[in-house]
Amino acid sequence: VQLQASGGGLVQPGGLLTLSCATSGISFRINHMGWYRQASGKQRELVATAFLSGRTNYVDSVKGRFTLSRDNVKNTVYLQMNNLKPEDTAVYYCNRVPAGPREYWGRGTLVTVSS
Predict the structure, then answer these.
(1) CA 58/CA 48 separation, integer angstroms
(2) Confidence at 24, pLDDT banded by 50, 70, 90
(3) Is 60 helix (H, G, I), strand (E, B) or coil?
(4) In sequence order, what are the beta bridge partners of 68?
(5) How far from 83 is each of 6, 49, 55, 101, CA to CA, in Å?
(6) Which of 41, 46, 86, 111 is deepest in the core (most CB within 10 A)?
(7) Contacts for 46-50: CB closer than 8 Å, 24+ residues apart
(8) Hey, which residues does 92 pair with through a beta bridge?
(9) Using CA atoms, how far apart are residues 64 and 70, in angstroms rounded to an integer?
(10) Model confidence at 83, in pLDDT bands (50, 70, 90)?
């Protein structure tokens, strides 16, 4: 299994970033996929889901600001993040939804929102 998240970095409040996550070995085309994040000292949370139906779902705190998309040819998911806030600071991971208790997570990509 490979989950290679990239695109994170330091951005000012109100800025934007686009994350990518290239995957292999997780049967991408038959799984719902999502972006998760884990802030320092907090539990990992699911913030965006791309269902196989094409529908997407977002946690309330990112609705209207984040957009998830998936490419079933490249086995890659993307997360466009606009109007970033300091509370969006976290390590971001992609994985299937739902993720099991022993799921492999990869290294994730760090997003820091700070002035």
Answers:
(1) 4
(2) very high
(3) helix
(4) 79
(5) 19, 19, 23, 32
(6) 111
(7) 46/97, 46/99, 48/79, 49/97, 50/77
(8) 37, 109
(9) 18
(10) very high
**Angle (CA) 96 78 29, round 5°:** 40
**73: pLDDT confidence band, cut at 50, 70 and 90?**
very high
- For residue 55, the model assigns a pLDDT of 95
Burial letters 13-41, b for 16+ CB under 10 A, else e? eeeebebbbbbeebebeebebbbbbeeee
Round to whole Å and give the CA distance between 115 and 10.
9
Task: Report strand pairing: 90-97 vs 17-24.
Answer: unpaired
pLDDT digits (tens, 9 = 90+) for 88-102: 999 999 999 999 889
Beta bridge partners of 66: 81
Distance CA 109, CA 6 (A): 5
In this structure, what token pair is assigned to residue 46?
Answer: 């699911």
pLDDT mean over 54-59? 96
